[in-house]
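I am going through a labmate's work and have reached the protein record below. What it holds is a sequence and that sequence's fold in token form. Please read both lines and tell me whether the tokens look consistent with the sequence. Do not assume that whoever made the record got everything right. Thanks in advance; the entry in question is below.
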Amino acid sequence: MRTTLTCFASAICLSMLAGCGGHTLYEWRGYENKLYDHYKNPAQQQEFTEAMKEVVLGAEAEGRVPPGIYAEYGFLLFEQGNSAAAIQYYKKEAARWPESEMLMEKMIAVAEKRFKKPVAPGQPAVSVPPAKPAAAAPQEVSR
């Protein structure tokens, strides 16, 4: 009898532990490790883009797309010159996460602007405005 009770209690504990481990609200598919590898090897951008594509497609298949993943993948595509695809992913991000809509609209506007005017090879994907000259420090008035 005692052995049966011990086995039953062990089975309940194991089932509870199995139910607690590894389940998250979103499907990340190793995103953290892929991002870390990209930071360590930024020259391997194409590999990171492919890894992010796997994250996006896997999360879509599960129906558990994390916030920001569409936008990040879209930005990778934008950096590689694929503005049309970037716009699609920015729109997906705005549709899935309405709180990001304002930022995504701005990103779409930038991508559309670039889409209409191709960037020459060797130029940065996003034009950065020149830095403003530093304002002179206010002079102290002596009395």
Residues 23-116 form a domain with the Serine Threonine Protein Phosphatase 5, Tetratricopeptide repeat fold (CATH 1.25.40.10).
